Every structure is written in structure tokens, then in C-alpha cells.
Known about the structure:
- There is one protein chain.
- With 496 residues, this protein is α/β, with parallel strands linked by helices.
- The protein has helices at 10-17, 52-63, 75-95, 104-116, 118-124, 127-137, 144-153, 189-192, 197-213, 216-219, 226-243, 247-250, 262-268, 274-280, 294-306, 309-324, 330-343, 353-364, 366-377, 380-403, 409-420, 445-461, and strands spanning 160-167, 170-180, 259-260, 289-291, 423-426, 483-485, 490-493.
- The protein has a four-stranded mixed β-sheet with strand order 1-2-4-3. It has a three-stranded mixed β-sheet with strand order 5-7-6, with helices on one face.
- Strand 1 (160-167) and strand 2 form a beta hairpin.
Amino acid sequence: MKRSCLLTLSLAALFVVFSSSAPMTTKVKPKKVKSGIVASNLDNSVKPTVDFYQYACGGWMKLNPLGNEYSRFGSFDVLAENNQKQLKELVLKLASQKNAQGTVEQKVGDLYKIGMDTVQLEKQGAQPIQGELKDIVSLNREGITKKLATMSLEGLNPFFGLFGSSDPDNSDMTIAYLWQTGLGIGDRDYYLDADQQHIRDEYVNLMAKMFRISGYSQLANCQGREKTLAKRVLALETMMANCFVDKITLRDPYQTIHKCTPLDFQNMIPAIDVNEYLQTLGLKNIDTLNVAQPTYFAGLNNILSVADMEVIRAYLAWNVINAAAPYLSDEFVNADFEFYGKVLSGKQENKPRWKRVIGTVDGCLGEALGQMYVKSYFPAEAKARMEQLVKNLQWALGERIKASTWMTDVTKRNALDKLAAFRVKIGYPDKWRDYSALNISNDSYYANVVRARRFESAYQLAKIGKLVDKDEWQMTPQTVNAYYEPNTNEICFPFL
Length: 496
């Protein structure tokens, strides 16, 4: 797999062009700038007309070899590596301190220590998920709806998912979206393409092994039939994949707008008790849903109506096991990596445990960790400097719009109005999330992850039916990335 030495976000390149610190109202004489091309990144042994990629990036790739824990490696990964080292230094300091119970420092430090406690992880084995698997074994068809909702609250989305997003007809309001999901391999093409049979075979092997080592096959009285059951789960997911709307269609946002009432949705999928589902999620007075893929939900209704309960239970159990595997003993972690790391991604070895646990802490307590990260590594003056840089960029774009010869006056006015309404988020938010309701305790690594998922689900679901918080960030300050959000007309650069 090729590795890119180029930044994937073109907006980052624009920052280099407009790097003056002059105010927007002052026209600045452009300074003479140096070339951005670094000679050592080139491979002059190759002609650009023969292999331009090798010519442009070959030198960089030689200086930055692909490690066994990566399937690709680019300039963003270099930044992320340094970022992880800084986070490790920060978290280790917290983990070594005696922090007051209930503080974010205690939660960050304790979660890291629990994740690094391999003795306890090995001792517990599959025990942290036994309760959930026992509940699934006793599940009947009447209990499917409630089980799907409770699993959704724990961050799992078998068959479909519900989340809040801005109303396509009123971007100031948040409404509930229902979306196709639940494929264990991820992409529908892995199920439908003939040349992906080896992926499907390895997926079956993974499921069969996980059914056995988790104890599910014993609980479900199907010992010795793990592979047969895994094949039946694959068949169920393949039926789902056949109903999935393809990626090309989903690129058109208008294809995912199908607003309806809960009653309309109930008529679409009678196999699910929609009112019970919404009530369990805490959405008691909801009157509008956006069903992004109606054809999928119609097909899912047919699947749920005819599927054998043994297969549905196994599919739900697989969702639990699969989501828990990275947070259990090495037997689960290694099996998970063999498929998702090696077979699907081409990696040769798993990341060291400290990186994986830092990732978990980051995922569970992102803004809390971010607040500490900013205090240690991102001074306020750096944020102010970058905000001024963006103002210069906005000024320059406004001047270009005014000077353009291909725009009409009306188009120019509209473009300038949109530019004036542009929201800019740099470095870190001005207000931080409150994590006081999230409990981190020394029962099990996975139990803490589940509590964090429940905390996050409650946070996200609470937005539905309310005004969009335009000050909220969709990325944490320590994230090596950036985004543009068209619904709020904002750009965010968290890591600089």
C-alpha cells in the first residue's frame, strides 16, 4: 500500500500562503517566500514522467520507513506519533499521582492504569461480557426491540443506528437520524464481491473462535457448531448488505433526506416496536425522524420477520464480543488483530499496549484530556496567532472575490455574506465538557469503556429536539486532523 507524504487537507496548504499577521483591513505587500519543496523528499533516481509518485515522495518514504504497526504512513502519522508521545507523558504523570476521587485527573490516570493492568485482564478473561451474553441467550422475539435500544445506549448499533444531526431543512435544529449499519466487516462490498471470498472465510473463522473463547457457544448450547453458526451470521449480514444503499448514492446528501413521523417509521418496519425503541432511548416526545435509507429499513423488516432467533441471538452476541475484544485478555485482542489488523488492513503487528490504552483514554475522556493537553502544550498566544492568520486568509479571499471578473455583483454580495458568516475554530474550544457524571472504577477495563459509551450516548441523544450548539467542537484539541462543517459553515483546526 502506498504511503503519502502530502497533507490530505488542502486547507492546511492555504495557511502557508496567507501567513502574514497583518489585520484584515490592511493590504499587505506580499513577502518573498521560499519554495515549499524539500529536496530530500524527492527521489531523483526516478524520472517524474515515469513514476511521479516515487519521484515526489520516494525520498520522504526512505527517511520515514513503514513500521510493522502501520498499513500506511504519511506526514499526518508523523504528527500523530509525536502527539501520542506527548499524551503518554501527560497521562503517565496523572497515573503516578494521588488524584482526588471524581476529578478528571483521577479518571484519566485510573483508566490508563486499568488498561495497562494485564494481570487483571488475563485473570478476568471473558468474565466482563458474560452478563450481556447470558441476557442475549435468553432473548425471545418480543424482546428484540428493547435489546437493540439498550445496545445502542452502550455504543453498539446492530442492524441500524440512531443519532442526532442538524435538520436538513433547518440547520439550527437537531433531529434524529436513522442510519443503516451493523455489518461486522464494515463495507457492503466485502459481502457482495466474488473476489472477497477470502475475507469472508477469515471473518467466519474469527467469529467461530470468538464464540468459543467467549463462552457463548457453551451458554447457547451450540458447542462444536461454532463455525456453522458463524456462517449463518455471515449469511444474515449478507442479506443486510444486499439491502444497503451503496456509497456512491450516499454521496448525494439529498438521497439521505426522508423525514417522517414515528408512526410512518413504524409502518415501514413493523418488526420493531418504534415507540418502545424511542422510549428506551429517552426520546419520549419526538415527532420527526429522518430515515436516511428507507429501502434498507424496508428490507431489514423482511429480514427480521423471517430470520431464525438462534441466528439473531448469535448476531447480537457477536456484536457484543466484537466490540469488547480490544478491552479483554490477550486471547481476544490477538484474535481481533489477526483479522481486523492483518487481514483487512495489512498491518504486521499490533500497536504497543500503551498506544492502544492512550487511544482508549482519548476516546472516553477526549475533551478532559484535551484540556490538560492544551495547558501543557498549547499556549494561548499560539491560538491568538493562528486566529489572526485565518483572519488574514479571510481578508485575502474577500479581496479576490471583489476583484473577480467572472462573478456578477449579486453573486459577489452573496459570497461576501457567506464569508462574513464563516465560523472559525482554532486550537481548542472556549468552553469544555463536564465529565463529572462519568464514573471510572477498578472493576474491569471493558466495564469502564461501556460506562463511557453510555455517557457519550446520553450526551449525544440529549441534543435531539434542541438548537444546534454552534460552539461545540466535533474533534478534540489533540486530534491531528481538521474539518469543514457545511451545516454550520465552520472550519476547525484542532491540532496546530
